[in-house]
Design goal:
It is a single chain. The chain is α+β, with helices and mostly antiparallel strands. Strands 1, 2, 5, 8 and 9 form a 5-stranded mixed sheet that branches. It has a 4-stranded antiparallel sheet with strand order 4-3-6-7, with no helix packed on it.
Length: about 180
């Protein structure tokens, strides 16, 4: 009596000791799950990069936030990026994964170099090193017009599509 071909593996594994068979099955399961999990991790549906400019000149140290428009699903996450010294930014989700939700977004911009001129008191090492006779930091107003910082008032609306794209942002300032 011959063993059908589908039982060739049984012929190999049956003579092995039970703990060796268990070890091989565990290894097989681990490899299979690793492959499945690795294949399940897909790149984000949309990636966005660009340059932030103020009157055509690169604007640094600003937080750019893309907020999905209402009506496109309340559970869509927002994305944000920080403009570097060249005004370049790349959007990321809150979990730091690169990408942005697809669809229309309101875009807000916050100038992170703003200073109120008030000395921050943290009652820690920074305060211990500070001399009381040192003048407070100078007041530095935002370089970005106020309406760009509000999700309700910002005039910037951008569409994010599937795949990679470059979205340039230029803020015109009247009187400059």
């Amino acid at each position: 009596m011959s063993i059908p071909p589908q039982h060739d593996l049984a012929r190999v594994f049956l003579p092995l000791k039970p703990h060796v068979r268990l070890l091989l099955k565990t290894a097989h399961l681990t490899i299979t799950l690793t492959l499945v999990m690795g294949c399940a991790r897909r790149p984000p549906p949309a990636t966005v990069e660009g340059t932030l400019r103020l009157n055509g000149k690169p604007l640094d140290n600003c937080l750019i936030t893309f907020l999905p428009e209402r009506g496109q699903g309340a559970n869509q996450p927002h994305s944000s990026g920080l403009a570097d010294e060249h005004g370049s930014y790349r959007l990321r989700f809150d979990n730091q994964q690169e990408g942005a939700a697809m669809g229309w977004h309101r875009v807000t911009i916050q100038d992170l170099s703003v200073s109120t001129g008030i000395v921050r008191r943290d009652h820690g090492k920074v305060d211990q090193e500070r001399d009381e006779n040192t003048p407070p930091p100078p007041v530095r107003r935002s370089r970005v017009p106020a309406h760009y910082t509000s999700p309700n008032d910002t005039p910037l609306r951008k569409e994010v599509k599937a795949g990679h794209q470059v979205i340039e942002l230029d803020i015109p300032v009247k009187g400059s």
